[in-house]
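Hi everyone, sorry if this is the wrong subforum. Our group has a chain we'd like a structural model of before ordering constructs, and none of us has done structure prediction before. Sequence below.
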Amino acid sequence: MKRYFQPVEKDGSAKKPTLSPSKKLCENGETPLEEPKKEPLKFLTWNANSFLLRVKNDWSEFTKLVTSFDPDVIAIQEVRMPAAGSKGAAKNPGELKDDTSSSREEKQIMMRALSSPPFRDYLVWWSLSESKYAGTALLVKKCCQPKSVFFNLDKKASKHETDGRVILAEFETFRLLNTYAPNNGWKEEENSFPRRRKWDKRILEFVLQSSDKPLIWCGDLNVSHEEIDVSHPEFFSAAKQNGYVPPNKEDCGQPGFTLSERKRFSNILKEGKLIDAYRLLHKDKDMEGGFSWSGNPIGKYRGKRMRIDYFIVSEKLKDRITACEMHGHGIELKGFYGSDHCPVTLVLSEATPKDSTQSEASK
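Answer:
Right subforum, don't worry. Here is the predicted structure as tokens:
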């Protein structure tokens, strides 16, 4: 696994991630393959709320889940490890920082974890922030390698989205988008409502421009679509920060459950011909295990939960969805593995010859 974490050069730049001794990312972002690879069928997404902390404190339990479920793809949000590059120098969001004693130690801890079974069977891509904030990772089994990997919604080589919020992998018959959506915040200020509106607009543009191939969109999308997706709708609708009330009533309430966010999310699903895999299979509200985020067990958010982590898939894949499950339950956060989010999994059935023909025709 060591070869996937290249040391930082003296000038602060970093080498491109090496996928194997003979396979490197091309300048256009594509991963050349020497032999046919199988298509992924099992997926896991998790907002780890600091991947490094989970490795230090909760790794054995999460490892058991990965071993038993055996996903082909693992999508991680909130990595919270800084990008490579010394202070004042350009950063490389695709590599972990290792130019200080503390960052080298943290990188070694992560390397050891990902070099141990079952994670050594995966290749990993990073998209990181300049600080210990946000960031995403994508782990894909070596037998299921994507044709190309990008780190932005524009499919531009080498470009990473701000704060490392996107990893986009293209497989033979579908695209997989791993995102950590920015929180809506509480106010009409630069890093709150406007930032989220811009994000939703770009996501809508992306799904419309990517309709040539089925999409699996996963991650922490930071929105609860309907009232069924929160434990206490009235509580979240009335939530305020320091008594502030936004001028537009549709922006009122808990970030992730404002009417404006939910309307925009509905529009993305409708216009993009996308469906919510979990809700497709689970029609009724599940107060015990139907939410992916849970508030602090101490304080007013105790027992207050939201479903903000998803697998959103193209309608073309609807008949192939066999399972989509939350892996945490209860207000004591069982199955959350130290995070405030629990893992969510998706299973697809094998593609039929008809599916393959449709995919080929859409190219």
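For your construct planning: The mean pLDDT is 90. The CA atoms of residues 25 and 31 lie 5 Å apart.
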